[in-house]
Amino acid sequence: MLHSESGHVDNTIDELYRDYRKLAFSIAYRMLGVVYDAEDAVQDLFADMVGRDLSEVRHMKAYIAKWMTNRCINVLQSPRRTRENYIGEWLPEPLIESADQPDQAAERADSLSYAYLVMLERLTPTERAVFLLREVFEYEYEEISDIVGKSAPNCRKIMSRAKEHARKPYPSVEDADARNALVTKFVSAFQHYDVEALLALLSEDTELIMDGGSHPRSAKRPIVGRSRVVTLLTSPKAFRAMRFSWQVSFTSVNGEMNMVYCDQGVVKAVCCCELTAEQDRISNVYIILNPDKLDHISL
């Protein structure tokens, strides 16, 4: 509920909030990769509208997209967002579907997948903005030009550069049945130290990336290659809590079935899998252990 300075509810802003909150969050979360930061950006957007004369805003959707995009670019470019001092690999925060989170069904589901968010991290803030506005929200280059404050030809060049920087092929829409079968087999093989099963499930160039922040048992660099990944996954000393202490559940994470590990109701880890283009093996495994990136999740 948004209020004006006098303390009265601004009905117009409340209506805009109901109508456009999902769009604003969709842009902010994909841009920032942090749930709380995205929610803060949404609140800031509509709080900024209170008391403003919006009568001359002819296209509210474009107005909100422009405000939110530029706000996120500024956040990503600010000194507090620099990650030079971050311990280990930085991964986006996972988004668990719940009644408290906006429904993302209106947007392309593949652009919400965890693998897609990881891919976006390869882009500069401006590249990410142009890429998302064009690929996900399907804006024309003239519209993108107005949003990011660059010419349409320049936006086309930025889009081309973004595609070069992004890993190809881009994460695609996965067959749910194929995914569920592979993920289920992966968890079983992981739980039982089944080397042969893991070798059969993982692609040759599999990467395992862990984001644990200061977590003492988190790999600080990506583990690259099937044999190295399997060696770590089947190590008697690694992941003991995930195997023996925490309860695992198959949960919709970023619109796809992934694994959430809990201890007495507290989320301790989220494990997301990315499939190969052929959807016959697992190409990447992402494990988020940093408690700061999990404390927004309630199951």
From TrEMBL:
Domain RNA polymerase sigma factor 70 region 4 type: 116-165
One Pfam family, short name: Sigma70_r2
The organism's place on the tree of life at top rank: Bacteria
Residue ranges annotated for the RNA polymerase sigma-70 region domain, each copy included: 16-81
InterPro entries noted in UniProt: ECF_Sigma-70_Domain, NTF2-like_dom_sf, RNA_pol_sigma-70_dom, RNA_pol_sigma70_r2, RNA_pol_sigma70_r4_t2, RNA_pol_sigma_r2, RNA_pol_sigma_r3/r4-like, WH-like_DNA-bd_sf
Signal peptide annotation: none
Coiled-coil annotated residue ranges, if any: none
Database matches in PANTHER family: ECF RNA POLYMERASE SIGMA FACTOR SIGJ, SIGMA 19 FACTOR
Subunit and partners: Interacts transiently with the RNA polymerase catalytic core formed by RpoA, RpoB, RpoC and RpoZ (2 alpha, 1 beta, 1 beta' and 1 omega subunit) to form the RNA polymerase holoenzyme that can initiate transcription.
Protein's name according to its UniProt entry: RNA polymerase sigma factor SigJ
Lineage: Bacteria, Bacillati, Bacillota, Bacilli, Bacillales
